[in-house]
Amino acid sequence: MAAGRRTQRLPADHPLRQRVLWAGPLAALLVGALDLGAWAYLWVFVLSSVAAQGFNLGHTNHLLNIAPPEARSRYIGTLNTLVGAALFTPVLGGLVADVAGYTPVFLMSAVLCALAWWQCGRLRRDA
To answer: Is residue 6 within 8 Å of residue 15, measured between CB atoms?
Structure first.
C-alpha cells in the first residue's frame, strides 16, 4: 500500500505510473508461462494492488472534474452504483469457471481489459 501511495503523488502521465499499470499483468503472464509456483503470485497481487490504488484515486478525481458542480453528487452516486455492480462480477466469473473451465474466464477478462484500456484512451485530457 505504501508503494501505491507513492505512485498516487505522481502526475497521471508519469512513466513510473505507466510501468506500474503494466507490471501486474506482465507478472501474471510470466508466472503462468514459466510455471514459477504459487508463491510467485504474491508479486502479481502486490503489483496489481499498487495499480488499483492509483486507479481508485484517478477515476473519482476525473469524474469530479468533468461533472457540473450542481450534479456532482448524482455523478458520484451513479459511479458508486456501477462500481458496486462490478464488484459482483467475480461471482459470475466463478460460475463460468465451474461450468466451462478457466479458458473462457481468461478470454473474457482479456477482451474486457482491452476494451476498458481503449475506452480510457478516449477520456478527455483537459478534465
So the answer is: no
Of the chain, the percentage scoring pLDDT greater than 70 comes to: 69
CA separation for the pair 109, 52 (Å, rounded): 16
Name the burial class of residue 50, with classes exposed (0-12), middle (13-18) and buried (19+) by CB atoms within 10 angstroms of its CB.
Answer: buried
For residue 46, what is the DSSP state? Answer: H
Please work out, in degrees rounded to the nearest 5, the angle formed at the alpha carbon of residue 104 by the alpha carbons of 42 and 100. Answer: 105
Check residues 93 and 48 and name the one with the higher pLDDT: 93
Per the structure block, which three cell numbers stand in for 8? 498516487
- Report field, pTM of the whole predicted structure over 0.90: no
Residue identified by cell 510455471 is 35
Does residue 13 surpass a pLDDT of 60? no
In the block, residue with C-alpha cell 503494466: 22
Amino acid at 8: Q
SS3 12: coil
CA distance 75 to 92: 26
Q: For residue 51, what are the contacts with CB-CB under 8 A and spacing of at least 6?
A: 4, 20, 21, 23, 24
